[in-house]
Write a structure and sequence with these properties.
Elements lengths: L13 H6 L7 E4 L3 E5 L7 E7 L6 H7 L2 H17 L7 E4 L15 E5 L10
Antiparallel strand pairs: 1-2, 2-3, 3-5, 4-5
The protein binds adenosine monophosphate.
């Protein structure tokens, strides 16, 4: 998977299809910069995904090639979604898998928001 470069963005990835409205999602929030929806296989009582609206493969791609407005809008939306999900006070984890070692499965940049119970240490031993 290339870190940047629109030639390698897969327009048929599942999140691109959700953005185009070709397949449904359980939507939480949407604005000009981001769409948030519940993960289809939740790994915590709260497990949401926040995706930028642009064609970005990974955090590396987003950080290197998105505009300042897109980056600011996306980060603001991510924090807002956590607040709307009611986990701000109890705490939550925001994770962006990036590339092979992270086990990123969907090649459209996204942040997982997980919470609703104590999550333990960051990685299994
Ligand atoms: P990652 O491994 O970081 O790429 O995470 C991809 C996430 O997308 C996984 O947690 C999946 O459960 C989730 N996922 C895959 N397809 C869908 C879908 N159609 N709707 C919601 N979540 C999905």
């Amino acid at each position: 998977m290339s870190v940047t470069g629109k030639d390698s963005y897969d327009d048929n990835n599942i999140f691109a299809r959700i953005l185009r409205g070709e397949i449904p999602c359980n939507k939480i929030y949407e604005d000009d910069f981001a769409l948030a929806f519940h993960d289809i296989h939740p790994q915590a009582p709260v497990h949401a995904l926040v995706i930028p609206k642009g064609r970005y493969i990974s955090l590396a791609d987003f950080g290197a090639t998105a505009s300042n407005a897109e980056i600011a809008g996306y980060i603001r939306a991510t924090a807002l979604v956590a607040s709307q999900l009611g986990v701000e006070e109890s705490g939550y984890r925001a994770i962006a898998n990036c590339g092979l070692n992270s086990h990123q499965e969907v090649p459209h940049f996204h942040t997982h928001i997980m919470g609703g119970r104590p999550l333990g240490r960051m990685l299994a031993p």
